[in-house]
């Protein structure tokens, strides 16, 4: 029975692959920024309606959800998620499906995620008599910017019971990984991606002539002391067993060779995997900055914007899905992932229900497809689309069956 289902999904994925590729190229050519995905959402809705599926009322303005019913649809529900937004990057690839929207590009693979999930929808709809329960598909806006489309969709009830459908018990997401060769996927159990907070700091002093520093309160010197001292937040306050990062990537002092400015502007990020330590670190960052500035005669305006939480993959779910992926792709094509201190708003789902976020390989060195995400030359080996659509359909049905057995 399972072997027959496995074969059917592989065949359907191959059958629908040209359509999935076309959808991905359309989406790649027409990228839209976060929370502006109006045409993208319209296109997704049209594709779903063509399958005789009925997308639910928009969530977070441009988000969509749709339910695919198997037998006994009210018994249980699991969710699958794709994000739809693009980045403010000018694409430099010379391909037929190059972005037509100047300064906007699908440089993080969200076109892949959306097209793949549309392919998964086709497969699941064709196999709706082969599983019990309901599979909810979530097409989410705004993953790239705070507060994150996931948080807004959760607030608007995307994970709650609707009509005759039960609230989803599990959620699964996939994301492209250009470091991983096409044909392979990666899983990690437990904590996987970090929380991400943005730090905005202005150090105030008193400017003046560089030759008369005794008449000034030098914010450049104060800032230097603060940035060096802040590293003790990680080196002397964080447990060595808890990965944390505190980085500052922007420092602006509008002075000159002979001008001490009135203020210095700084931007940075703090990332970790523990919500209690995260809050504690915010207080330590603030205390160090304010204390040093005051001791040197200046002052600080500090704004810490709390971003996405850390992403945790529920261990039992992740292990089950990893084993199911090995059955679909072969054990040699399923790898273990390391921690990654980037952030993802899928983390919001993982804070609410059991979740698994895995990686889809898209790299092909022979074809020159090696660029990282968030670059102007990012692209994928489109063989990944057939794999991604079929694998997610297989994982969803397997997880429904596993849920039914408990």
Break the fold down into its secondary structure elements and pairings.
Blueprint: H1 2-29, H2 38-50, E1 64-69, E2 77-83, H3 110-126, E3 134-140, H4 149-155, E4 170-181, E5 185-187, E6 190-193, E7 197-204, E8 208-209, H5 219-230, H6 232-237, E9 244-253, E10 259-260, E11 263-272, H7 275-295, E12 299-305, E13 311-313, H8 315-329, E14 334-336, H9 346-350, E15 354-363, H10 383-404
Parallel strand pairs: 2-3, 2-4, 4-15, 5-14
Antiparallel strand pairs: 1-3, 5-15, 6-13, 7-11, 7-12, 8-10, 9-11
Helix pairs in contact: 1-3, 1-10, 3-10, 5-7, 8-10
Structure description:
The protein folds into two domains: 2-193 and 309-404, Zn peptidases (Aminopeptidase, 3-Layer(aba) Sandwich); 197-305, 2-Layer Sandwich (Alpha-Beta Plaits), CATH 3.30.70.360. α1 packs across α10 (383-404) and α3 (110-126) packs across α10 (383-404). The chain starts with a helix and ends with a helix. The strands form four sheets. A seven-stranded mixed sheet has the order 1-3-2-4-15-5-14, with helices on both faces. The chain is α/β, with parallel strands linked by helices and 406 residues long. The chain is built from ten helices and 15 strands. The model has no long low-confidence stretch (mean pLDDT 96).
Brief account:
This protein has about 400 residues and is of the alpha/beta class.
Strand-residue proportion? 15-25%
Order of helices and strands: HHEEHEHEEEEEHHEEEHEEHEHEH
Helix-residue proportion: 25-40%
What's the CATH superfamily of the largest domain, by name?
A: Zn peptidases
Annotation keywords:
alpha/beta; seven-stranded mixed β-sheet; single chain; four-stranded antiparallel β-sheet; 15 strands; 406 residues; Alpha-Beta Plaits; Aminopeptidase
